[in-house]
Amino acid sequence: MKIDAIRRSYAKDKLDLDKLHADPIQQFELWLKDAIAAELPDPTAMCVATVDASGQPSQRLVLLKDVSADGFVFYTNLGSRKATELAANPKVSLHFPWHPLERQVIVYGTAERVPSSQVVKYFLSRPKESQLAAWASEQSRPVSTRQALMQKFAEIKHKFEHGEVPLPSFWGGFLVRPHQIEFWQGGEHRLHDRFMYRNQSDNNWHIERLCP
Questions:
Q1: Among 50, 59, 149, 162, which one is most buried in terms of CB atoms within 10 A?
Q2: Which of 5, 187, 28, 12 is nearest to 107 (CA)?
Q3: Catalytic residue selected from 103, 141, 190, 209
Q4: DSSP labels, 127-193
Q5: Averaged pLDDT, 48-53
Q6: pLDDT per residue as tens digits for the range 59-103
Q7: pTM metric for this prediction
Q8: In what residue span(s) does the Pyridoxine 5'-phosphate oxidase dimerisation C-terminal domain sit (predicted)?
Q9: In angstroms, what CA-CA distances link 41 with 67, 72, 121, 138?
Q10: Does 162 belong to an annotated binding site?
Q11: Residue 93 exposure: Cα atoms within 13 Å on the Cβ side
Q12: Domains held by the chain: number
């Protein structure tokens, strides 16, 4: 399979400093609205990168569930690989790959646990099947077969057949507080537009253009 000649041009848009909002969170929200309006598949999907004790990075796609002036929120099993790695090293990177719009956003920050009251509120808003799956799956742990997983799901479904599904003690959320956020817009001849926001000691954001 020959793949070295696969390429395309990027010419949908340009990004200039005067087009950028002074606040990167508000700029992110503008781009997220564009991704939703364009009906992209999973516009809130982001790649979450963490690092283990040996320095080995790992990545996975997770859905963004909230964004505010404080940062970016996602939820997960607290026994999962990403959660255990974040417990040891809270430094994290998020990547939003909006390829059809020829845009990317990369967030560099530090993760902290979301308050339990917020976790409960979100968990109870999920479809019941998703709540049950959270109980059934020991995320990142080995499982012998898919049939074994489905059997566990059936048992959990029967257990909570009547009434509300309670929040598992092993399930929670993380808030990623950003200190750098990069916005990338594809450009012609690989001369892409890249701007990096860096949080300063006075909590204001400094913006600079980066070479593509």
A1: 50
A2: 28
A3: 190
A4: -HHHHHHHHH--TTS--S-HHHHHHHHHHHHHHTSSSPPPPPTTEEEEEEEEEEEEEEE--GGG--E
A5: 97
A6: 999 999 999 999 999 999 999 999 999 999 999 999 999 999 999
A7: 0.92
A8: 171-212
A9: 19, 20, 26, 27
A10: no
A11: 12
A12: 1
| Residue 76 assigned to a binding site | yes
Let me know how many helices (H) and strands (E) the chain has, helices first.
Answer: 5, 9
Residue 36 CA to residue 27 CA, distance in Å, equals 14
| Active site annotation includes 190 | yes
Domain residues for the domain of 63 are 8-125+170-209
CATH code of 40's domain: 2.30.110.10
Burial class (CB within 10 angstroms; exposed 0-12, middle 13-18, buried 19+) of 183: buried
Q: Is 7 annotated as a binding residue?
A: yes
Q: What is the Cα–Cα distance from 83 to 110, expressed in whole angstroms?
A: 13
Annotated binding-site residue? 120: no
For the chain, how far is it from start to end, CA to CA, in angstroms? 28
Classify residue 104: in a domain, yes or no.
yes
177-193 per-position pLDDT tens digit: 999 999 999 999 999 99
Residue 120 lies in a domain: yes
